[in-house]
Amino acid sequence: MRVALFVTCLVDAWAPQVGRAVIQVLERLGVTAAVPLEQTCCGQMHVNTGYPGLAVPLVRRHVRVFAGYDAIVVPSGSCAAAVRHQHAGLAASAGDAVLRRQAEDVASRTYELSEFLVDVLGVSDVGAYFPHRVTYHPTCHSLRVLRVGDRPLRLLRAVEGIDLAELPDSTQCCGFGGTFAVKNAAVSAAMLADKTAAVRATGAGICAAADASCLLHIGGGLSRLGTGVQTRHIAEILASTR
User: Fold this and answer.
1) Spatial CB neighbours of 226, under 8 Å, sequence gap ≥ 6
2) Count of Cβ atoms closer than 10 Å to residue 89 Cβ
3) Residue 20 neighbours by CB distance under 10 Å
């Protein structure tokens, strides 16, 4: 099986350790993943900000870069959702039937990390060890668009030494929403305050999630409050060993 890692631009720029962690987990499970160097942004930012036409060239690049792989693994619910639920529609709106079919094909082979581990590889225990109290925030796109369900939690529950604490009102958005946090700062801040309060109520020292973008937002809020609570992408926890 030829596997590729779609790193995502936010991970590449802000959290490269997440990409490395994904590779470590996959290699531990006997999977070698390529990291195509020509990959760029999926175009989600352009679409969500109201400029879908500017995302079409990015869709063209994406389908070209990831053609030929049996599976494309993404450590981001939002970017995986963009590939699976936006790309074909963008191509159709541009009147490009060939690109639409190519986008549908790539979308059918694109998996958020927990989906790939649980559904494709058929594993929930990846041999991780993480002796810390952790709470898990299910990000909006992974929860509502991809519908990953309890896959991330199944992976975390199998981690040796972990103390997994349930997050109150876990399905509530953290308030990031990409440019939403910039354009609607007051609302975003109020949502973040609720989320950080919920995290603190668990007594966990680590808040985990499957999207680096949401962790960036939540981590900033926790840091400004001086809580000492850290954030970790689920891939980082799964990559940890004794």
Assistant:
1) none
2) 15
3) 15
Residue type, 142: S
Burial class (CB in 10 A: 0-12, 13-18, 19+), 161: exposed
Domain boundary among 96, 120, 144: 120
215: domain range? 133-239
The one-character DSSP state at 55 is G
* In contact, 130 and 240? CB cutoff 8 Å: yes
Amino acid at 134: V
pTM exceeding the 0.90 threshold for the entire prediction:
yes
Q: Over the stretch 78-129, which tens digit does the pLDDT of each residue have? A: 999 999 999 999 999 999 999 999 999 999 999 999 999 999 999 999 999 9
Q: How sure is the predictor about 180, in pLDDT bands with cuts at 50, 70 and 90?
A: confident
> Same domain, yes or no, for 70 and 101?
yes
Return the structure tokens found at 219. Answer: 């981590």
Which pair of tokens denotes residue 108?
């059918």
Instruction: Please determine, for residue 179, whether its predicted confidence score (pLDDT) is greater than 90.
Output: no
Question: What SS3 class is residue 164?
Answer: strand
> What pLDDT is stored for residue 181 in this prediction?
85
Q: Which amino acid is at 39?
A: Q
Mean pLDDT, residues 5-27 taken together: 97
Q: Are 156 and 134 in contact (CB under 8 A)?
A: yes
pLDDT at residue 40 greater than cutoff 90: yes
Do 159 and 190 fall within a single domain? Answer: yes
For residue 178, how far is the Cα from the chain centroid?
A: 13
